[in-house]
Backbone:
C-alpha cells in the first residue's frame, strides 16, 4: 500500500497535512491582500481627490510677428498662471510641468519647464514663465490666419500645460497621473501711439482653464 494521499485518500499523512497547511497559508495571504485593497478603495472613495483648478491671470506679449514669405513666427509671451488645490485632505506633487503656447492646435513656442513643487491642502501657487519662440515654422494657412486676426484686432492663443502629478493622502502617495491644462488667452491689437510704432498687444480678461487628469 502506498503512502500517497492521492491513492490512500488519507488526510493524516505528511502529504495531506502539507497540502492543508498550504491552503490555509494561501487563504490568509489572499484575505490580507483583499483587505488592504479594500482599505485603499475606501480611503480613495472617502478622500477622492478633486483635480486642481487653473486660471490664466495675465499674458504680457512682447513680440508676436510672422515673417514673409518664410512663414516663421517669433513670439515672446510672459504668462501668469495660478493654480489652487481644492482638496481639504489631499496634497499634490507636481513632478513635471511644461508650459507652451499654441495657435489653432499648432505649438508655437518650445515648452518652458516649471520647477517641481508640492501643493498642500487648499494652497494657491502662482507661476510667471516666459514662452519664447524664435523663427518657428508655421503652415502657410496659419501665417495667413495670424495676419487676418491681427488685421481684425483680436487673436486667440492657447496656453497649455503638460505634466505629471501624484496625490498625497497622509503618508500614502499615489502613482503618477497625466495632467493636461488648456487656458484661452484673448489678445487685442491696438495701434501704437506714434506713427510707425508697432501695435500694442493687450490681454483681455482672466480666463478659467480646462483641466484633464
Residues:
Amino acid at each position: 500500500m502506498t503512502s500517497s494521499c492521492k491513492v490512500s485518500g488519507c488526510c493524516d499523512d505528511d502529504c495531506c497535512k502539507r497540502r492543508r497547511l498550504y491552503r490555509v497559508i494561501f487563504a490568509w495571504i489572499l484575505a490580507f491582500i483583499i483587505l488592504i485593497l479594500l482599505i485603499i478603495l475606501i480611503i480613495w472613495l472617502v478622500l477622492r481627490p478633486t483635480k486642481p483648478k487653473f486660471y490664466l491671470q495675465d499674458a504680457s506679449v512682447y513680440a508676436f510677428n510672422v515673417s514673409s514669405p518664410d512663414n516663421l513666427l517669433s513670439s515672446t509671451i510672459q504668462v501668469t498662471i495660478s493654480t489652487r488645490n481644492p482638496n481639504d485632505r489631499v496634497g499634490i506633487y507636481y513632478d513635471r510641468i511644461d508650459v507652451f503656447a499654441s495657435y489653432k492646435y499648432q505649438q508655437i513656442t518650445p515648452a518652458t519647464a516649471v520647477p517641481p513643487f508640492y501643493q498642500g491642502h487648499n494652497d494657491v501657487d502662482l507661476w510667471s514663465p516666459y514662452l519664447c519662440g524664435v523663427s518657428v515654422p508655421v503652415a502657410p494657412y496659419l501665417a495667413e490666419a495670424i495676419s487676418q486676426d491681427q488685421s481684425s484686432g483680436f487673436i486667440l492663443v492657447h496656453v497649455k500645460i503638460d505634466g505629471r502629478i501624484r496625490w498625497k493622502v497622509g503618508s500614502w502617495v499615489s502613482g503618477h497621473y497625466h495632467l493636461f491644462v488648456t487656458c484661452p488667452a484673448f489678445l487685442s491689437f491696438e495701434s501704437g501711439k506714434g506713427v510707425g510704432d508697432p501695435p500694442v498687444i493687450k490681454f483681455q480678461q482672466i480666463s478659467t482653464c480646462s483641466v484633464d487628469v
In short: The chain has a mean pLDDT of 87. The chain has two domains: 8-46, 53-212. Residues 53-212 form one domain. The radius of gyration is 29 Å.
